[in-house]
Amino acid sequence: RCDCFxxxxxxxxxxxxxxxxxxxxxxxxxxxxxDRLNQELFRRVFEVPALRLQPQQCKDYMTRLRAALLNVxxxxxxxxxxxxxxxxxxxxxxxxxxxxNLDSLDAQLKQIVIDDKLEATTHMLELDFSHWTADQILRSxxxxxxxxxxxxxxxxxxxxxxxxxxxQLPFKAFIGEVVLAKNQNIRTVVNKLNSIxxxxxxxxxxxxxxxxxxxxxxxxxxxxFKLDYSKVYWNSRLHTEHERIVALLGKGQVVWDMFAGIGxxxxxxARKCVVYANDLNPESYKYLCENARLNGVRVHAFNLDALExxxxxxxxxxxxxxxxxxxxxxxxxxxxxxxxxxxxxxYAAPGRQGLPLPTIHCYAFSTAEDPAADVIARASAELGGPxxxxxxxxxxxxAPGKRMMCLSFVLPAEIAHAAPVTPAGGAQGDASTMSSSxxxxxxxxxxxxxxxxxxxxxxxxx
Length: 462
Hints:
The chain is α/β, with parallel strands linked by helices and 462 residues long. Helices cover 20% and strands 24% of the residues. The chain has 10 helices and 19 strands. The strands form 4 sheets. A 9-stranded mixed β-sheet has the order 16-17-15-14-11-12-13-18-19, with helices on both faces. A 4-stranded antiparallel β-sheet has the order 2-3-1-4, with helices on one face. A 4-stranded mixed β-sheet has the order 5-6-7-8. Helix 6 links the parallel strand 11 (254-257) and strand 12 (274-278). The protein is elongated. The protein starts with 43 loop residues before the first strand and ends with a strand. The model is unreliable at 1-21, 424-445 and 451-462 (pLDDT under 50).
């Protein structure tokens, strides 16, 4: 027995010359490109100072010596004493490894140890892969020259979606396996590839670790969404924007969603609005219909080109003014502005000039110094007229110097009733000439999906 720290403490298995706030770190174990995860390599033993106590003393000294305790997440301050016996049960109170001997204790804490004649010793603390975070494991294993080590990912149901940089790709299997091992709710880890499907706008991806299962289910805005992440677009970072737009919609209003995807706007809106939702991607259309059934909401679903959808809906509104949109959603920021010209002259036909004009919410990326002025000017150029009441909401930072904006404006009568134009490079066709009789063929007529009063989905022609 002694009343100071054991002299052998300096001969620790791992030298722990750390500041009082420093964590216990995993062993440095640099891997080579292509290496896979071996969890056994991340086992480490630390020799830490401890005080030997009677079990009934532990609570008191944990309070009195709080400032000197080992403060490491997921590690207990009190452990069993290997030297304890049935006749002399004892516990060890673990202290911060920064305290190398009695003299290194703060004066007040040192006096407690001396006055109470506490026995100082050391304890061999073994930590393994399960203890450290994904970020700590990656920092200890990846090259020091790597500009940034990240374990961040977007969660889509059971899928972790990563966006690895070029210098991380040689280690992608290791990174994927670490992320999989450190996140209990993740079963599949994928990495976004540079290529994006230009027609249907979903990410091409590669499997890094886990199950090759890309059909996920998740919740957002109180709705259930099912999707095949390898075939449709989904971005969890937009949930706040989805909620913002739905909050703007009034009860009973009509919504045209031109690029609906699997329904992140359409489904929450359908709880209080009449929703006509369209997507060109057959897989998005399929899951839009299935998600309407899952949530028991009614959605008029279409699988058309967005320009054709707008013309179909305008023709329907000419026949039935209750179909006329109060709000139009255009959530395709990469090129929604290439479609906005369809609204010039869309209400020019005599039977449409009395229809109410919609508020349009059009998303666009901007790299301009003034992104709000930029998207308003570009939309005005596409429509061939000024937008005096337009506003631009800053949705999020997409990349350095690149913003995602939401342009909102009431369609001016001068544009709605003007002669249609087709911008250079834009899609062909006269927005005002399709009649209501042209809008009744197959999927172009829409599918009336769901309804809160039915248990099994009903699919009817509109």
